[in-house]
Recover the amino acids of this structure.
């Protein structure tokens, strides 16, 4: 079997080549420094660890205090995606800076790594969005060193420097706040001054405009007064013209009325003459109409008389025939009564019936009512 090589002594070249360089070497030295704490070779290993971790802590210092990460070999626990830095929305906060994958060497604890991640990402966003901020300006605030303390005194000194740095940041924030307040006050003062100047200019313009309006109004009033005088003259001329026209119309109306009265008198006389002539014609026409009506009535009565006479002749003929029948019946009754025998009672009854019939026949019938014919109406003239 091949011989097993002896383990390399920590700190030698062979040990460094076996462990590897970069963050792996720093992590290995950190583990050895923790294991050999209090041993004889512990200070030497701690010195080697601090020397090897100095570039790493410088990168963390730049990231924590300035928001910049110069990690060319991906030795920290943070990854910057430069293609996502152009975003200024939620994608920047989620995609621009991320944690390193789980397979990477984790030299810091998770809590400290998360705090450094949030601090550096916030400063990076502040530097991109507001590069003139006092936290982004170089030399505005003295940055404390970021080292690995190896004793309680060093840790206390580091805490004191951190407290001083926090106080300097607060002082810078207060100074920046006062500066902004002074700038705001100065801007407000300048705005007030500009407003006053603008107000004066506007007031002067308004006064000029009012003066111009007053001049224009005075000119307009003078024009209106002249126009009013012209209108008064025109109205007076129109009144005189109307007065003369009214006098002319009155004279014309008087002449016309006189002429109309004369014409009316002439027409009245003519109308009276025509009325008298018309009345005479009416009298003649009335007489002619009455004569025509009398003749028509006479003709109508003649026809009615003829009809009545014809009816009376017919009635007389009927009466004559009835008398003849009665005489015949009486003669037969008389003959029968002269003969002896019991049969004489029957002709007597018959003679009574014949006598009633003769009495009924002797009553002349009532002539038909001859209604007078309607008289013709007088014709209109």
């Amino acid at each position: 079997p091949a011989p097993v090589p002896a383990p390399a002594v920590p700190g030698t070249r062979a040990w460094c080549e076996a462990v590897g360089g970069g963050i792996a070497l720093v992590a290995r030295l950190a583990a050895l420094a923790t294991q050999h704490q209090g041993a004889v070779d512990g200070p030497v290993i701690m010195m080697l660890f601090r020397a090897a971790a100095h570039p790493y802590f410088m990168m963390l210092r730049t990231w924590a205090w300035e928001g910049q990460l110069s990690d060319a070999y991906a030795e920290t626990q943070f990854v910057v995606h430069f293609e996502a830095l152009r975003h200024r929305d939620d994608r920047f906060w989620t995609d621009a800076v991320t944690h390193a994958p789980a397979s990477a060497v984790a030299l810091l604890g998770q809590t400290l790594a998360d705090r450094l991640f949030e601090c550096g990402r916030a400063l990076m966003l502040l530097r991109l969005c507001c590069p003139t901020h006092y936290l982004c300006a170089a030399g505005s605030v003295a940055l404390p060193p970021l080292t690995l303390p190896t004793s309680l005194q060093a840790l206390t000194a580091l805490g004191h420097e951190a407290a001083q740095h926090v106080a300097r940041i607060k002082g810078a924030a207060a100074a920046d706040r006062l500066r902004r307040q002074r700038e705001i006050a100065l801007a407000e003062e300048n705005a007030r001054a500009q407003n006053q100047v603008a107000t004066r200019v506007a007031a002067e313009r308004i006064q000029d405009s009012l003066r111009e309006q007053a001049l224009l109004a005075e000119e307009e009033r003078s024009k209106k007064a002249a126009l009013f005088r012209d209108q008064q003259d025109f109205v007076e001329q129109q009144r005189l013209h109307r007065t003369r026209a009214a006098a002319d119309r009155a004279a014309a109306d008087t002449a016309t009325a006189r002429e109309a009265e004369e014409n009316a008198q002439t027409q009245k006389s003519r109308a009276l003459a025509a009325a008298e002539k018309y009345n005479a014609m009416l009298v003649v026409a009335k007489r002619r109409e009455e004569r025509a009506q009398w003749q028509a009535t006479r003709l109508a009565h003649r026809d009615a008389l003829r009809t009545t006479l014809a009816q009376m002749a017919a009635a007389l003929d009927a009466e004559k025939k009835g008398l003849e029948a009665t005489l015949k019946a009486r003669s037969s009754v008389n003959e029968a009564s002269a003969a002896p025998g019991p049969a004489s009672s029957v002709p007597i009854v018959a003679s009574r019936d014949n006598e009633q019939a003769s009495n009924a026949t002797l009553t002349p019938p009532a002539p038909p009512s001859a209604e007078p014919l309607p008289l013709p109406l007088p014709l209109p003239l």
Q: What stands out?
A: Confidence is low (pLDDT under 50) at residues 1-8, 342-381. The first helix runs from residue 13 to 19. DSSP finds seven helices and two strands in the chain.
